[in-house]
Write a structure and sequence with these properties.
The protein has a four-stranded antiparallel β-sheet with strand order 2-3-1-4, covered by helices on one side. By secondary structure, it is α+β, with helices and mostly antiparallel strands.
Length: about 130
């Protein structure tokens, strides 16, 4: 079996619970095809760079998959039919990343730093005084 990373974007007006149900349904499709999902990460509701079908935000989800090409093809067919899924991308990889993804590591760092911004949104760090 081959290893894949799969990301999909769900519409902004569905709830997080509905996104989890979508993920469970996709996992079931893969398991029926003889595959399995090794990691499932919900990245949250994030802004899009441009509108997709009148949506400005989307729920992002990452799946690490160990499955055959036929199981992936069936999962993607189901996703094309589903109107709640805006976009998806599946990439074949040589090995799956262990631990949290880069997006989850970024979220943890931002939570600890408080966003990295000082008072009134000014960037933190040493500044030289202005000369007038």
């Amino acid at each position: 079996m081959a290893l894949y990373e799969h990301i999909f974007l769900a519409r902004q007006d569905v709830s997080q619970q509905q996104v989890e149900e979508l993920t469970a349904a996709l996992t079931e499709v893969l398991s029926q095809g003889g595959g399995k999902v090794t990691k499932n990460e919900y990245w949250g509701l994030k802004g899009l760079s441009y509108r997709i079908r009148k949506n400005r935000k989307a729920h992002y989800t990452l799946l690490n998959i160990d499955a055959s090409a036929q199981a992936i093809a069936e999962m993607e067919r189901q996703m094309r039919i589903n109107e709640d899924i805006l976009r998806f991308m599946t990439v074949r990889v040589d090995e799956l990343e262990e631990g949290p993804s880069a997006m989850m590591q970024k979220r943890d760092r931002d939570d600890r730093d408080g966003g990295g911004r000082g008072e009134r949104g000014a960037p933190s760090g040493d500044r030289r005084p202005r000369r007038f």
